[in-house]
Amino acid sequence: MQKTWYAKLFGALMSVLVLAGCSSTPDDPYADKRDPFEDMNRVVWDFNQDVDEAVIKPTAEAYENVPEPVRNSLYRAFENLQEPWSFVNNILQGKPKDAGITVGRFFFNSTIGLLGLLDPATEMGLTKREESLGETLALWGVPDGPYLMLPLLGPTVLIDRGTDWVDGNYFPYTEVDSDWDIPRYTVKGLELRLRLRDQEQVLENSLDPYTFVKEAYYQNWRYNVYDGNPPQEPAEDFEDFEDF
Fold first, then answer.
1. Where is the signal peptide (predicted)?
2. Scanning 58, 112, 116, 197, which has its CA 20 to 30 A from the CA of 145?
């Protein structure tokens, strides 16, 4: 299967970031070590804000005029296609019970649920157990890599978005024409944008929206990796203040 336009764009962006990182040596001892490309990330953040205000937000608000049952059905149908890969990653993470639930969800939602347009599996008590390759690698101890603010795609870490190409090349996606990538990402992106409206006021009231979003991303990332029970982070080192 040929790479999609999304994968090609991501690959090109990664090349630029790697080259930038090779020549970047932050001197600020108080700089966030997770965010070595902060200057560039802030430029992308500003760009994303402008695009959101001019294009994405108005488009999402127009999409909201589509009846909610239709929107929910489209979203569920695309989400249903992720279940087989969640099954694989649940196995890789040593969670056979969750793997069994994903099999049940895919079977029932793909049959009596009309290819995922309906969600009878949740009504049966088979709640979603979504996992990605990035989350699997992070659970295995692979470092997150640098924090990145990607054009249009928003905040991430390298291990998260860097595995998207693998996450998008498995059954049943391998059996579906790549032209479906555009509506898939469009529907999911617009639905996510609508759901983020409740957080807009909090973001506007924050002292530094960029940092607020970064910390929110890391909190959510760790929550997903450790299924809502992340290990306690080590306390900061205050040895320099022992004599104070």
1. 1-20
2. 197
